[in-house]
Amino acid sequence: MNGDNNYDLIVIGAGSGGVAASRRAAAHGAKVTIVEADRVGGTCVIRGCVPKKLFMYAAGLGAALAEAGGYGWADVTGRFEMARWADAKAAETARLEAIYRGMLADSGVTLISGRAKLLAPDRVAVGERHLRTGHVLIATGGWPSTNALPGLAAAMTSNELLDLRELPASLLVIGGGYIAVEFASILAGLGVAVTLAYRAELPLRGFDADLRSRLAQALVQRGITLASGVALTALEHDSTTGRYTLVRADGSRFQAAAALNATGRRPNTAGLGLADVGVAVDGHGAIRVDADSRSNVAGVWAVGDVTNRVNLTPVAIAEGRAFADSVFGHRPTRVDHRLVASAVFTDPPSATVGLTEADAAKLGPVDVYESDFRPMKTAFVGSPARSYMKLVVDGLNERVLGIHMIGADAPEIVQSLAVALTCGATKRDFDRTLAVHPTAAEEFMLMREPRRRLGRTPAPTA
């Protein structure tokens, strides 16, 4: 298209998915602009995955200092200063944002700052400026939800927590998902008295049951109080003392100096003008899309968390690139959402890919292999920390259906093994792979006999 306000593609949202899609489309020769109302880089880079993991590293260094004496180091002490970390984090996210801006510029993508609104499937307003386009891609991600219980809006979200310059003495973490358990673990590791409250019996709904139970044990070992198994009814904030009180359905109450709302995120679709154009959304506000990321309105597409499919950064990137390759590269591409590895950065971390034991057992016979041990590094200094590994194997053809781990280096180990799972590896492939010793990862190669067999019909008796 010709003209300063005419484009082949307008991308709304300069997070991971939007940046990936715009750059790939531009590489295919499209004239592309990307519109962003906030900072370039999105949730992951600015207020999510990256700063959270830097926070996790800070907490982990505290544990390393505590273990150093057991390895012969003398006079090893330290004191965490939140303001110093916050300054370093701000500098790093600024550096990364500059890199993202540079990548867009180098790719020939025009960046427009402002809030976008759809006027029609081929027209977008950014303030007083009206743009025309052949395609619109919405990649606005998600935003913390505040409606899980009355009073929750008074609590911090992960956005505000990562900008703190001083740690609270005590903290209520409300929620049982990965954001909740990660920040509970991190803050406890930095010396905060943490209470983690959620209504289920175990955290991390949707994960393998053995990982969930072992994570709960690890959180308790971390010094975290678990307020689980009871519905939450309200969060109260005393404006005089500044303290927060969580009220539960059984009448129990938990208090702390600060509160973190980690009850989940909602698709960030408000104010985009979707209803005016006729773009369908579900009950949570997520844009409804097909397997190719098309909405119900021709010319309007969506990728990433705003579609509420698999809300992970690598998935948003893959969806954005698949869209660009399909539409502008004339190479139809779809993302397989069935085998997506994920990690939870607690201490110890968890990682998983494929089917849980319970889900696999619904499909047919399953063999379950397990290893549960004290890692060499922490056992040496007398720590009770353990690592747990599980292989879920098809009982008919030995194909590995699921890989689950909680323990040091779990994300790195499972990421590598996800390649094997994607390629259709069998238990026999694991058995004939020589192990690297001494490592924790070798335990995945050394599981010889199943711990249990599920769903098998007993052999008939004579």
Question: What's a concise summary of this model?
Answer:
It contains 13 helices and 22 strands. It is an alpha/beta fold and 462 residues long. The strands form five sheets. Strands 1, 2, 3, 4, 5, 6 and 16 form a seven-stranded mixed β-sheet that branches. Strands 17-18-21-20-19-22 form a six-stranded antiparallel β-sheet, sandwiched between helices. A four-stranded parallel β-sheet has the order 10-9-8-14, with helices on one face.
Describe the overall structure.
The chain is an alpha/beta fold and 462 residues long. Helices cover 30% and strands 24% of the residues. Strands 1, 2, 3, 4, 5, 6 and 16 form a seven-stranded mixed sheet that branches. Strands 17-18-21-20-19-22 form a six-stranded antiparallel sheet, with helices on both faces. It has a four-stranded parallel sheet with strand order 10-9-8-14, covered by helices on one side. It is globular, with a radius of gyration of 24 Å.
Helix and strand topology:
Elements: E1 6-12, H1 16-27, E2 32-36, H2 42-47, H3 49-68, H4 82-106, E3 110-113, E4 116-120, E5 123-126, E6 129-138, E7 142-144, H5 158-161, E8 170-174, H6 178-189, E9 193-197, H7 209-221, E10 225-227, E11 232-237, E12 244-248, E13 253-256, E14 258-261, E15 265-267, H8 274-277, E16 300-302, H9 313-327, E17 342-344, E18 350-354, H10 357-361, E19 366-373, H11 376-379, E20 387-394, E21 400-406, H12 410-422, H13 427-431, E22 452-454
Parallel strand pairs: 1-2, 1-6, 2-3, 6-16, 8-9, 8-14, 9-10
Antiparallel strand pairs: 4-5, 5-6, 7-15, 11-12, 12-13, 17-18, 18-21, 19-20, 19-22, 20-21
Helix pairs in contact: 1-9, 3-6
